[in-house]
Amino acid sequence: MSAECMLETRSLCKRFGGVSATDDVSLCIYAGEVHALIGPNGAGKTTLISQLSGLLRSDSGKIFFSGEDVSRKSAAALAQLGLARSFQITSVFQELTVIENVAIAVQVTLGSSFRFLGNAAKDPAILGPATEVLKRTGLADKSSVLASRISHGERRQLEIAMALATEPKMLLLDEPMAGMGQAESNDMITLLASLKGDKTMLLVEHDMDTVFTLADRISVLVYGRVIATGSPEEIRANREVQQAYLGDD
Amino acid sequence: MDNALNRSEQSKLAHHKCRSFYRRHRGSVLPGMINLLVLVALGALPVIAYLDGQIFWLDVATRLVILAIAAVSLNLVLGFCGLASFGHAAFIGIGAYAVGIPVYHETYGGFEMIAGYSGWWHLALAIAVSALFALVTGAISLRTRGVHFIMITMAFSQMMYYTLVSLQEYGADDGLSIDLRSELPLLNLDDPLHLFGLCFASLLGALLLSWTLVRSRFGKVLVAARSNEPRLKSLGVETYRYQLVAYVISGAMCGYAGALMANFTVFISPSMVEWSRSGELIFMVVFGGSAYLFGPVIGTAAFILLEYFLSRFTVYWHLPFGILLILVVLFLRGGVSGSIARLFSKRSAVSNSVSVNSTSVAEGSAPAIQGSSQARGEDTP
């Protein structure tokens, strides 16, 4: 494939004391693909996502986003460039309603919020896209409920909705199905499948069925190292991967 | 996408929003009325008393209104941003000295650059220097959170205190009497009614400014940052800048209150900047309800009136006063304003009264204390 990398890492490292959480990670995620990142617990998946989204500074190595070196950019700067992240542990604005959660995400994409006049809660430039995103993510009927009062699954959906509301070029999804029941998981898979082809995604996920359903390509991380990258079929057939990961399943 | 469909969907949604808007506001009309009533009483009663020959109450009310402006300004940081500044008395001091020092030099010579009797000059100086002080100290303080933020803002305010103490020319610890009040067109601040009128109008202005800020995009960012700052950062917002601007606005407003205070007391001294003064301002905000726009006003009124009545009963009035404060913080969630709001919205439980009371600081702006009670409220789909 000669397609361009939307997100590329070169020899990325992060150590915590003597432990290498990520060790010489080089990845290329093509524009438009759903790329899954799998690996056993403690393989460094969340560390890698945090490095990519700018919340953790890498010890060495480089990150390129759309061809630009973003290795030392802050999380906020990366988000402005179009890299949106959802968190493994749900992180929404608990004291705000569902639509307010999405509205703040929309507002952020409309440029500087140094606007001191006007009622932001009634601004059509914010409300329009916000209601659109809620509809798309199936949360429209919950729009005026506080985020602290919706179900866990809905809160995960809200996470995705907020990420989508920033109109990102790429989504980093850290275990979007974590802690969900089967029905909720299916809703989420349907939602992610509906975004496939539209958004580039890097998906960290434990559930193999999900990964093999959604992903175009898969990378396997073990003890901080990428031991294999390839199509689902290639990964399934890879002996090293079977030993390290699938064998345990 | 299909445009027509979109539009019909949107209008449906607008309709839904409209309905839920009324539903959510139904319970909060009365608290709004109470706030209005308090405001009217605050404006009218002292004036009536004064015209009746009782000068004392106008004095109490003027001090109350000035402190209320300071409390409203503190609430911009404490309530909106969730940052407990323990140094707001410094701004009152700056504002007061911005009146005292120019008047002193105009009267006794020296420092002609800043000397003057003009009220415009005093207010401009108070606002500008406070804003600058807020910018410098805020730029440093806002890199910290929690206890560290409290300590560092207090440290800056103590620096201001000792700076003022060291100003021999302006009376050092003993302070300085102001010979003449600020000169303003149409107003004669020596007339207690005029002074009160100016202070009261300023309070209305401060409330209007806060209200405007809360509803704006700027305000939404502040409230979201208070709710979950890391999340907002990952959305691409440099929260620090917004909080700094809020801190500067707050400081400038508090400095303005200080300039009024100097005109009221006609005396300035470092004791205006003592750390306990900053503490009292926090009490006023928390007592009244920091989640509410009008909370600080109620808190200040309660504070001043309690101080007055309790001190008539006993010289040890600090003791019952302290106990009362503890009780309010422990048992009146969201302060006095929060309790009033809850009282009148039995049906639509706590979260609604907190989140959508017309005078609430921001939608869904329940700080930690209210958070626990939200769970008990009923759902409002």
Topology overview:
The complex is a heterodimer of chains A (249) and B (381).
Chain A: E1 5-16, E2 19-30, E3 34-38, H1 45-52, E4 60-65, E5 68-69, H2 75-81, E6 83-86, H3 98-109, H4 124-136, H5 152-165, E7 170-174, H6 182-195, E8 200-204, H7 208-214, E9 217-222, E10 225-230, H8 232-237, H9 239-244
Parallel strand pairs in A: 3-8, 3-9, 6-7, 7-8
Antiparallel strand pairs in A: 1-2, 1-4, 4-5, 9-10
Helix pairs in contact in A: 3-4, 3-5, 4-5
Chain B: H1 3-26, H2 29-51, H3 55-80, H4 89-108, H5 119-141, H6 146-165, E1 176-177, H7 192-215, H8 217-227, H9 229-234, H10 239-265, E2 267-268, H11 275-288, H12 295-313, H13 318-331, H14 335-343, H15 350-356, H16 368-374
Antiparallel strand pairs in B: 1-2
Helix pairs in contact in B: 2-3, 3-7, 3-10, 3-11, 3-12, 4-5, 4-6, 4-10, 5-10, 7-8, 8-10, 11-12, 11-14
Describe this structure in words.
The complex is a heterodimer of chains A (249) and B (381). In chain A, α6 (182-195) links the parallel β7 and β8. Chain A has helices spanning 45-52, 75-81, 98-109, 124-136, 152-165, 182-195, 208-214, 232-237, 239-244; strands spanning 5-16, 19-30, 34-38, 60-65, 68-69, 83-86, 170-174, 200-204, 217-222, 225-230. Helix content of chain A is 35%, strand content 25%. Chain A folds into 2 domains: 1-82 and 168-249, P-loop containing nucleotide triphosphate hydrolases (Rossmann fold, 3-Layer(aba) Sandwich), CATH 3.40.50; 93-167, no CATH class. With 381 residues, chain B is mostly helical. Helices cover 72% and strands 1% of the residues of chain B. Chain B is built from 16 helices and 2 strands. The longest helix of chain B has 27 residues, at 239-265. At the A-B interface, α2, α3 and α4 of A face α1, α7, α8 and α9 of B.
